[in-house]
Write a structure and sequence with these properties.
The chain has helices spanning 7-18, 57-68, 90-95, and strands at 2-5, 26-32, 35-42, 73-80, 102-107, 110-120, 124-133. The protein is an alpha/beta fold. A hairpin with a 2-residue loop joins β2 and β3 (35-42).
């Protein structure tokens, strides 16, 4: 399955991750279904932001309220692994709700896409997704894609 993303949203995630080499960045993915139209940066309020992320609950609530008022839906979220690969960690799997949401992870090998599901192929929680920009080009995922970690 392929998830599409606007090149502006992907560029924002890439640049934000590169600018934060010592703490995880995070944010919300907005759009419809498997189409990401925007990335909304959020504060990482985790107690240990250098190896964990927690999206600011106020930002999450505000995004859901905006969606109920006609704004774009929250289809997932993104975060970075500043010192690791762009793949879900066991901690990510433990924290993930198997609700079908999209997870984008930025790391040393690019950006990869995942879906949080019951009994996923990665850590029992995630299935890999292909990621493509809306113009049809493959997203710059580095030398790996999510499927390399399946």
């Amino acid at each position: 399955m392929t998830v599409t993303i606007s090149s502006d949203a992907l560029d924002l995630i890439d640049k934000s991750a590169a600018a934060s080499p010592d703490r995880e960045i995070c944010g919300l993915l907005l759009g419809e279904g498997d189409h990401i139209t925007a990335a909304m940066p959020c504060a990482n309020v985790a107690a240990e932001p250098w190896h964990r992320f927690e999206i600011d609950p106020a930002a999450l609530i505000a995004a859901h309220r905006a969606a109920r008022s006609g704004g774009p839906a929250v289809v997932g979220h993104y975060h970075s692994h500043p010192t690791g690969l762009a793949e879900p960690s066991p901690r990510d799997a433990a924290d993930a709700v198997p609700d079908g949401s999209i997870w984008l992870i930025a790391g040393g090998n690019g950006v990869t896409a995942w879906r949080a599901v019951v009994a996923g192929r990665r850590h029992g929680r995630f299935d890999p997704l292909d990621l493509a920009c809306v113009d049809g080009t493959a997203a710059p995922q580095g030398p790996y894609s999510s499927k390399d970690f399946a």
